[in-house]
Amino acid sequence: MSQMLNSIVAETKYCLHDFSFLCAHRKSPSFFARKTCRLTFPVVMGIVLSLPKAAMQVEINQFTKKFVPHSKSATAAALFKARKKIKLTAFHELIEHSLSQIYAADFKKVLGCRLVAVDGSIFEVPQAARKDFGTLSTRSVEIAKAQVCALYDVENHIILEASIAPYVTNERDEASQLIQQLERKSEETGIENLYIFDRGL
User: Fold this and answer.
1) What is the pTM (predicted TM-score) of this model?
2) What is the distance between the alpha carbons of residues 86 and 91, in angstroms, rounded to a whole number?
3) 3 state SS of 155
4) Domain locations in the chain as residue ranges
5) What distance in Å separates the CA atoms of residue 41 and residue 98, rounded to the nearest whole number?
6) How many other C-beta atoms can be found within 10 angstroms of the C-beta atom of residue 132?
7) Is the model's pLDDT at 87 over the cut of 80?
8) CB neighbours of 21 closer than 8 A, spacing ≥ 6?
9) Per-residue pLDDT tens for 115-167?
10) Rounded to whole angstroms, what are the CA distances from 151 to 73, 79, 114, 159?
11) DSSP assigned state of 26
């Protein structure tokens, strides 16, 4: 397992420093083009992938000190601005690379199949996202809500597919779309899936 994780980390580092990967996943050719930029593409991606838990400025300072010690730390506002320059597809591609390595090796199965749990939930999102996801009206306020659905490999503890959609989205439709996506990918790798649902689905 440790060897596989090291391999995934090494490939991720390679992608983050690969110019073709940058060109494919920045929103404009002018983004991350200046060599004097503190928040380079690898730095911004690295901070986001580290899943910050403390105050953002603290996380930026710690990351800079550890990985780019000869560079001055940037501000949290600058990071938020730089993060918007990156397409979501960058994370999709990195996740797909990681999953392909994990499932190319031996993994836990049930009856010869990958055991996949399907579930959805409704959760609150920032009020600024109400136009994108919709709201739940109460007596006094309107709360921004979204519908989320995920396919989870129960035995290997890995989220295989997930989506976030407007609050009014039908949970079954969202789950069906994710299952179709996973089945297309599974056909290419020869993996058979055994799905389990809760009563709501």
Assistant:
1) 0.82
2) 9
3) coil
4) 2-90, 109-197
5) 19
6) 13
7) yes
8) 15, 90, 93
9) 999 999 999 999 889 899 999 888 788 899 999 999 999 999 999 999 999 99
10) 38, 31, 11, 6
11) B
